Structures are given as C-alpha cells and as structure tokens.
C-alpha cells in the first residue's frame, strides 16, 4: 500500500530511510561504501512499524541537532538552520552500508541537483552503523559527498517522527519527509524499497 499526501506550501524536504528488506507490501503516506572494508552489518528485521505511526502531513516537524558528516567532514546539523534557508528533505534509513540504504543514498546523490533547483536541501538520518557515517558520507557508491548524513543514537529522533522498527526499535525504518520552511510536514513516503523515495520527495517540492 502506498499513500502520498502533499501540502501546497513552501516546502522543506527532509528525507528519511530503511535497508535491505525482503519482499513485503510497501506503504506510503504523502504529504542506505571506502578504502577499508566496512564491518558486516547486522541483518535488518523484515517488518517495520506501520507507516500510520509516522507523523502526518500538516504536523509540525520536531526540530533537532545531530552529529553529521558531509564528504567525510563532521559538523553539527541543525534542522532549524536548514529550514531557514529553504525547503529541506529529511529521510530516515535503517543502517549505513546495507544494500537498500546504499542504493537509496546513491539515488539521492544522483538527484541532488534537482533538489537544489527546487531550493531544497537533503539530510539522511540513521541509527544503524553510525560509526561508519564518516566514510558513508564520502563514498561514491552512497552519498558521494553530495549531502550530509546524521547519526541518531538509539533512534531517538526516529521515535519523535514515529518511524522506528518494530522488532529493532534502536533503528529506524525507511521513511522520507518533506518539511516546509514553516516547519510543517508537507509529504510523507514510507516504503521498504529504496526506489520511489526520491521521486516522491521531488513531487512534493513541485506541488502547487
């Protein structure tokens, strides 16, 4: 089941994500590598929190600060500061260096010029394999230095957005949000597959 809801407001996009799931019905509501070999990731549980638990369109997006990396360089990411510059796309994903999350990060990196043309910035947030985010942020097979990724220890930020994994609550599922400059959520897209998140977020930015 896939649902996309959009708000016709100035949009801040903030994208969120999930990794390497087996086939299962996707769900959506509108508005996942470097010189040293990365550690073998833990398997991702096959089920996720019902997308209905994700914050709904029109809800105020919780502000947060988080340790983040862009092209291998660490900095303090602040959602409020990003929103002040224009639309932000926030996407949650289960864990760095897992197949689905590698694909999704690569897709966002390939589309970064389209987001920039819409005046939007992109931020990925994960609680899984956060110790590898420095490398992940620069790896040409994932983020390629095109957008930052932030660590969410214990999935505390994910919990505020209602996107934790049912059987692994210390990780998030794969959910993306478009957040307007006023802080309200304009679109939500939850899907176990990495495909579709980029298009859904771009559609949200183009909505009248």
Automatic annotation (TrEMBL):
Q: Which reaction does it catalyse?
A: a hydroperoxide + [thioredoxin]-dithiol = an alcohol + [thioredoxin]-disulfide + H2O
**Which Pfam families does this chain map to?**
AhpC-TSA
Q: Name one GO molecular function term.
A: thioredoxin peroxidase activity
GO cellular component assignments: cytoplasm
Entry keyword set: Antioxidant, Disulfide bond, Oxidoreductase, Peroxidase, Redox-active center, Signal
Keyword check for Secreted: no
**GO process annotations (BP):** cell redox homeostasis; cellular response to oxidative stress
Q: Which InterPro entries does the annotation name?
A: AhpC/TSA (IPR000866), Peroxiredoxin_BCP/PrxQ (IPR050924), Thioredoxin-like_sf (IPR036249), Thioredoxin_domain (IPR013766)
**Which SUPFAM superfamilies does the UniProt entry name for this protein?**
Thioredoxin-like
Q: What is its EC number?
A: 1.11.1.24
Q: Where is the signal peptide?
A: 1-17
Q: Where is the Thioredoxin domain?
A: 55-208
Family of the protein in this entry = Belongs to the peroxiredoxin family. BCP/PrxQ subfamily.
Q: What does this protein do?
A: Thiol-specific peroxidase that catalyzes the reduction of hydrogen peroxide and organic hydroperoxides to water and alcohols, respectively. Plays a role in cell protection against oxidative stress by detoxifying peroxides and as sensor of hydrogen peroxide-mediated signaling events.
Protein name, per record: thioredoxin-dependent peroxiredoxin
């Amino acid at each position: 089941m896939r649902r996309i809801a959009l708000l016709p407001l100035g949009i801040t996009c903030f994208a969120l994500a999930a990794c390497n799931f087996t086939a299962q019905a996707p769900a959506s509501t509108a508005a996942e590598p470097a010189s040293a070999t990365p550690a073998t990731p833990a398997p991702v549980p096959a089920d996720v929190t019902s997308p209905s638990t994700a914050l709904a369109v029109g809800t105020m997006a919780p502000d947060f600060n988080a340790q983040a990396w862009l092209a291998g360089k660490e900095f303090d990411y602040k959602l409020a500061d990003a929103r002040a510059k224009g639309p932000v796309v926030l996407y949650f994903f289960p864990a760095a260096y897992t197949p689905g999350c590698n694909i999704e990060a690569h897709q966002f990196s390939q589309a970064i010029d389209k987001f920039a043309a819409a005046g939007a910035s992109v931020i990925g947030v994960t609680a899984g394999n956060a110790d590898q985010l420095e490398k992940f942020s620069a790896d040409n097979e994932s983020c390629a230095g095109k957008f930052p990724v932030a660590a969410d220890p214990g999935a505390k930020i994910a919990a505020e957005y209602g996107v934790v994994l049912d059987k692994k609550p210390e990780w998030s599922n794969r959910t993306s949000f478009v957040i307007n400059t006023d802080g309200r959520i304009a679109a939500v897209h939850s899907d176990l597959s990495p495909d579709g998140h980029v298009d859904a977020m771009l559609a949200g930015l183009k909505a009248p």
